[in-house]
Amino acid sequence: MGKIYESIDGRLREFISAQRMFFVATAPSGDGGHVNLSPKGMTGTFAVLGPHRVAYLDFHGSGAETIAHLRQNGRITLMFCAFEGPPKIVRLHGTGSAVVVTDPRCADLLAAFPDPPDPHGLRAVITVDVHRVSDSCGYAVPLMAYQGDRDLLVRWGERRDAAALSEYRATRNGVSIDGLPVFS
Question: CA–CA distance from 15 to each of 62, 79, 103 (Å)?
Fold first, then answer.
């Protein structure tokens, strides 16, 4: 039986911070549209900002469903699984928003990440106001050994200047797979 917590306390904060990857789930409003579930990782890209607030760095990618869904309804769930050590799953349910790199607030948010990868390829900082914190056993989650971070996404961003990244956002990340606008 899982447990619901008042906040992201010290023990939960330690667990979350120790996970090498997490999953992000969002969906558009209404009966139509696609639920999106994305794996996230890379050391230094997640931060607990307070007992009810977290953030992660969102780098350019093949889609931008999370940002589109957050713009439309804000609903988001983050899930952390223990792939090493005792079995555990922690879910953070909340309301998220995307602070894109062109927003002056982005620089202030980056200060919450003490050792991020090269932020040149960063698309946004996703913030989540957490209203439900829960855990469950994770007995069926496999044990897997961490071998290291992939550097492909960072290297991809390093090969592009600011204009090329802006063009990519406009042409490749402008709308979701359901036709929702991503950026204003």
Answer: 29, 12, 31
Phi/psi of residue 97, nearest 5 degrees:
-145, 155
Alpha carbon 87 to chain centroid, angstroms: 22
pLDDT tens figures, 89-117: 999 999 999 999 999 999 999 999 999 99
Residue range 35-76, pLDDT digits in tens: 999 999 999 999 999 999 999 999 999 899 999 999 999 999
Coil vs helix vs strand at 18: helix
- Tell me, yes or no, if the pTM score tops 0.70: yes
Under 8 Å CB-to-CB from 22, ≥6 apart: which residues?
16, 39, 40, 41, 46, 56, 78, 79, 80, 81
Q: Residue 12: which H helix or E strand, with range?
A: helix 10-18
Main-chain phi, psi angles of 4, to 5 degrees: -105, 135
Cβ 65 vs Cβ 34: under 8 Å: yes
Q: Which residues contact 87 (CB under 8 A, 6 or more apart)?
A: 137, 138, 139, 141
